[in-house]
Structures are given as C-alpha cells and as structure tokens.
Amino acid sequence: MSPRTRSRLAILRAISFTVTITLAGSTSASDWISALDDQQIARTGTWAPSRFRFAAVESLQTVEDRAHLTLSFEGTGLSIRLGGHNVPAYGPPNLGRLVIAIDGKFARTIRPLGTPREVVLAEGLTEGRHRVRVTHRINDKQFGCRIEGFRTWATPRGHLVFRLSGEHNAFLVDARAVLTRGKTVVRDVLVRNWLSGQCGLAGLPPGNDYSLAIQASGWTSQAIAPIQITAGKTHWHPPIYLQRRPETVIHRFRFPRLNQQAIRRPGGTFRARFLGFDTTINAVRLTRRVGPVTISRKVPFEEDLAAKYYYDREVVVTLPADMPVGLYDLSVDITGGRRTGTCRSPRSVHVVAAFPDDPVLVTFGHLDTSAQFQAEYLQRLADIANLVGADMVLSSNACNPAYVSGSLAHLQIPYVVNFGNHQFAGHEAWYGDPVGRIDFGPRISVLNFGHPWHTGTARADRLLGERPKATMKIVNGFEANAPVEFFNRHQVRMIHDGHGTGTKVMDVGTTPTRRIGKSNSISFRVVRFKENRVQTCTYNGHETAPVPFRRDEPSPVQAVFRVPNDGTRSENSVTISNRLKDDFPNGRVTFVVPSGKYTVTNARTESSTPGDDGRHVVLVARVDIPANGQVQVTIKPAK
Q: Which domains, and CATH codes, for the chain?
C-alpha cells in the first residue's frame, strides 16, 4: 500500500469506525435504501459517511481494499447509485472498482470512472430473497468509491441512459434530471459522471408517456418528450447538448462587464470597449428582461477614435434623462462582412434613480458552488438579496464560474465575485481580471481583490488612488490580511473576505476598517452602513454571528404570490415571510402586470416601467419586512 493510500485510509478511520459484522438486517420488496441505513446494510471494513463540500445526498466512502457492503433484499432487480466524483478543485475522483456478487456468485465489475451514477446490478432474478455484496478493490494502485444507496424492485422495470454535454463542457459537472409521467414526478435527482458525460436512471416502471427535463444553472434547460420505457430493456436516448444561457455569455466585450459594471443615473455617461474590428457601429442598446417583459432603449453614443486599436473600438454612451432604472444588458450592433453581428455584455449596466448614502450589502463566501445542487443554494441566496433590498452583493472565494454566473443572474442588482483556493481555472472568461473596481457613484468605490495579499498592493493602490474623493471605500477580498497600512492609506471602511483565520468581525487600523469575514458556508450577512461606517453586519445583535441558512432548509425570507406573477393579472398579492429574528426595512418586491396605473398596499412604489410591447408594466415596490413575521403586499389598478 502506498503512503498516499495509507494517509487517506487513516483519515477515514479517524472519522469513522471499523466493523466486521454479520448481516444487519434485510429488506422486503421496496424502493430506495440509503447506503447509510445500518439496519439493512452491513459494513465490513472502514466506511465513513461523506457529504463532501455540501453534496446533495450523504454517501458512504471508503479507500480500503476489500471493504464491502452487504444487503439482503426481496425482489427481482437491483441498482446502485454512486456518489459524485470530486472535481479537480477538490481532489481525485473515485478511482477504485466495485466487484458485485449476487447470492454468492460474481455478477459484474463496476468502474465508477466510466459509468453513470445509477447502474443496474441485476434484473430478472427469481422471486424471493437475494443477497448482494459490493466490494471495493484497488484499481491499478488507484482507489476510492462513494455509494449513496440501492434501489430494488419486484416487478419488471426499464432503464434510461444518455450522455450529457454542453457549451463550456469543461465546467459542466452535473445537472438535475426531473422525470415525470403526467403530473407525477417519478425521479428528481442529480445526474452525470463529469468525466464521461454518462447519465442513467434505473428501475423505472414501463410506459410510453415519460417526459424528461434537464436543468443546469447557467445552461438552457431542455425538455424531452415522449420517452418510452420498456420492461427489461435500456432506452439509450441520443446525446443531449446544453447551450449556455445568454445572460451568462459575454460576447466580444472588454468593459463594462460582470465584475466591472457601470452604475449610473439617468443622463449619465459611461465608456464601452468591445471587439468592433473595422466594422460600422450601427447602434447601442440597453435591454432589461423581467419575466415576459422586455424594457429596452436605443441610446446615443460617440466613438472615441483615439482609443481605437486593432480589434478594439470604444464608445462613450449617454443615458437618456428618462432612462428607466434597473439592471441592463448592453449590446452593440456592427456591420462589416464576416464581422457583422452583435457584441453583447449581459447585466453590465445598472441604472439607479439616486446613489445610496447608506448602502445595504449582502455578503457570503466560500460556498463551494462547484455544481448544480450548490448552485441551487446560491440562487436562493440571490433571491433573498433581491427581497431584503440590497444595493449590491459581495461574493468571495467562489469555485465554478459557469454555475455561479447562472445562479447570480437572478440578481436584480450589481455584484462582485472573486475566486480563491478552490477555483476552476478559466473563470476570467466570465469575470475578467481578478483585481478590479466598481464605482457606485462618486462616493462609493468597491475594490475586488482576488489574489492573496502577499502578491502586493500596487494594483489595489492604483485603483483606489484613482478615486481620492470617494469617502466610502470597500474591499471584497479573497483573504483579509492586507497590510494595515494599506487600509489606513486609503481609509478603507470595510473588507469582506471568504477565506482566512482570526476574528470574523473586528476593527483594524486607524480608519478603522471593519473586517467582515465568512464564518461558515451555510450563512450570509446583511451589512448596513450609516454615516460612512458599518452600522450592522451580524445576526440578532450578536458580536460576530452571520445570518444562518442551512442547505437543507427552506429560504428564511421568501415571497409567495397568490397567483402567477406573469403579467396576465391586474390584481395580485404577495406574502413575504421572514423566519429570522432580524427585520428588513425597505425590502424589494417586483410585480409584472398588464399595462395601466396601479396602487400598492403595505408598500411604497419605487418605479413603474412600461414594457416595449405596451401591454405590460413592471412595478417595483419597497416594503418593510418584520422579524419573525409576515407582510402581505397587494397591487390593484388605481381608481
């Protein structure tokens, strides 16, 4: 056994226990049996429960050669569900092999490297009780496996297998597969071996009326129907390919862009640089989409010819004085031979009626958003940030930019993000340079610093030094240990970080600078400023605690509409529930209604914007959300 094998085995033994026992129990004809069910599954050797990096389901893990699980079951068929592979940011995948024996006889060998996560172990067995033994073996000096559980059946079943790939395939880890028959959900699970793209759903009742939906945050969902499942057979569906969602794709743009957004008031100007080559610049347009409603404006621009170089062109854009507020996609139409097309920068221009004097920030970090389940949690955080009325989101130490950009596309406000010790290489394609700055008006400058501070502060000094009149300088850092002299020199009011040691909420230096660090990966913070200083950043008056939000619980702050908020109804209401001990003054709720004038109760109208089609209005209202309570906001046509 190699030193590396011994090391990993020692770790598992430290957090588990070694058992050699007879069969713990048995199961009659049933459906799903978790691998952690020690009443039905006997463990021999060293097995440890594992929910590594917030996996959707807990599994049993081993690296020990000949460690095995034994299950007695009643039925005619059986499948196994494997745990997901580690992505490169977290270590090696499951490299061992599994030897399967049914009723004491060899049945097959499974190599997790090259199989779907759901694999049929046996079918067509005689009726009655059977015994399966799954043994982990070292595979050419490589090892490791994770097992989530088993599925048994006593009536004939069929199976579905397909390969899933997508645009930016290196970043596509897994996806959610929802298999339905009519209104009945038959299976709702994560699928995909990211090493091979293989997906499988085993043990399905036969039928010709199945529908399959594939969902991955940041990619366009696909719905496939009808699908026929035949008893005793495997349906091999043709390969499925997912396109990236347009709100996550930057095309031929330098700036503004995600992590470098332009925040302006109506009538303001900003510069835009894009790959215009030697084409004619025809039009510049800002577009915002809210549900079925499109709000867009063709905006005036003037090219800065002195800034032109090779592929790059640069224009100065002027916002109309009546430009509606909101977060916009920026597009530039160009014509000229094969270069004809549209340069596009999604979510890159934010228009506000006024710059905040006392901004509200939502912060979180080190969320391990590597794949779909973790991205679903991040999307719920984005929904919370919208609802509690944040002006901006700061995210630190992120992981997979493809999933992060998909989840945070749900934000109605700007955000900055950096990537740290578990980053996917290539995040710059989404978020640009790890060091940059966003100005939220003349007073507020936010420095995003995605490097460890030992690399030096020269670029950070330059970026903050360019804003000497900004009185509220904020840093979103990967880590917090910047030189205190740097904080003092620029009078930094706050640094948020997602990786580091020390007290998570503390004052540093003479300004002073409030350090606000990530306490754990199941929480967030709401940071409120008052008179140019952090007023609050903890939960329920605690000295350091963040707002708790476990992965397996409903969102603590959520909005439920009485009828669909899809622009078809002129009267609607939304109930906002808050299970937390903190209240959220000046929260935000958005209604989509038919064209007209409206009034709201228990809220204050912030903006009302007609859609391009003249048939809809997007109304944004501000509402005070009580602690441990509910508030209902109603919209109806004005009399």
A: 1-155 (2.60.120.260), 157-244 (2.60.40.10), 247-351 (2.60.40.10), 360-548 (3.60.21.10), 557-637 (2.60.40.1180)
Handedness of CA 247, 251, 256, 262 (dihedral sign): negative
Q: Residue 411: name the closest of 391, 438, 389, 386 by CA.
A: 386
- 0.90 exceeded by the pTM? yes
- Which residues have CB under 8 Å from 540's CB, separation 6+? 580, 581, 582
Q: 96: closest CA among 132, 133, 127, 67?
A: 67
- Residue 275 phi/psi, 5° resolution? -90, 85
Q: How far apart are CA 234 and CA 192, in angstroms?
A: 17
- If you average pLDDT over every residue of the chain, what do you get? 95
Q: Are 230 and 206 in contact (CB under 8 A)?
A: yes
Q: What is the DSSP string of 31-69?
A: SEEETT-TTTEEEEEEEEEE-TTS-SS-EEEE-STT-EE
> pLDDT tens digit string along 279-294?
999 999 999 999 999 9
Q: 42-75, pLDDT tens digit by residue?
A: 999 999 999 989 999 999 999 999 999 999 999 9
Least confident of 19-23, 37-41, 92-96, 300-304: 19-23
Amino acid, res. 518: K
